[in-house]
Amino acid sequence: MTISVHQKGKQYLLLTPLGQKHQIELNHFSPEYLSEHQLISNVAEGRGKVYFFEANNLTCVLRHYFRGGLAAKLSRDNFAFSSVENSRCYQELTMLNLLTENSLNVPKAVGARVVRSAFSYQADIITQAIPNCRELHELLRCEPIANDQWQNIGAQIRKMHDLQVCHDDLNVKNVLINNKQDVFLIDFDKCAINQNKGWKQANLDRFLRSINKQQKKYSDYYFTNENWQALLAGYKGVNNKTT
């Protein structure tokens, strides 16, 4: 899938065919513009604000790129610039397109913006919103999840791993489940193809640690070892409908 790049001064507009179809423009990357035109339907809080908005009959999600960890103390949202193709947003659009074309449940890529200065850049990305969904983390705070659903989660992770895609931040908050019980994986910033061996188990271990970390924070958190075994069964392609 081709990503078109349009330059206007120091700004670059990156569009997938979906973004072109719905006429996404540079203005759509401005929260001020979206607010002024009453396009915002919801705002979510994370490392930064995430804006849900409507644009030409498409429900979109706008996210700004921020640094994490120790690097954030040096620069909150500036990244070294080498080329548009090497920017984090271009790489994420490319990854989402790859996963979508291979029938994974991920957000569909819409477009991105790169704002360049002399040696650095800032970036934003727009994806299509996934309707009627909740974080796995939110669900586990409210109720148990059936084991066949855990198998579905494992199966989605396995499909991603079979493409040699390593999710750099696979955690309980980056799994969504919609009202049809479909499982979606989100947030593919800094994710990459990895042809090495051994990382897949480490990726699963990372996901388990994220669940255990949240479970320690809350007295009510509906997760058991049986659930994890069901996830592993789904990952291995074992069909077991025990709930």
TrEMBL record:
Residues 37-243 form the Protein kinase domain. It is a peripheral membrane protein. It catalyses: an alpha-Kdo-(2->6)-lipid IVA + ATP = a 4-O-phospho-alpha-Kdo-(2->6)-lipid IVA + ADP + H(+). It is found in: Cell inner membrane. PROSITE patterns: PROTEIN_KINASE_DOM. Its EC number is 2.7.1.166. GO terms for molecular function: kinase activity. Belongs to the protein kinase superfamily. KdkA/RfaP family. The keyword ATP-binding applies. The active site is at D169. InterPro entries: KDO_kinase, Kinase-like_dom_sf, Prot_kinase_dom. Catalyzes the ATP-dependent phosphorylation of the 3-deoxy-D-manno-octulosonic acid (Kdo) residue in Kdo-lipid IV(A) at the 4-OH position. This is 3-deoxy-D-manno-octulosonic acid kinase. SUPFAM superfamilies: Protein kinase-like (PK-like). Keywords: ATP-binding, Cell inner membrane, Cell membrane, Kinase, Lipopolysaccharide biosynthesis, Membrane, Nucleotide-binding, Transferase. Pathway: Bacterial outer membrane biogenesis; LPS core biosynthesis.
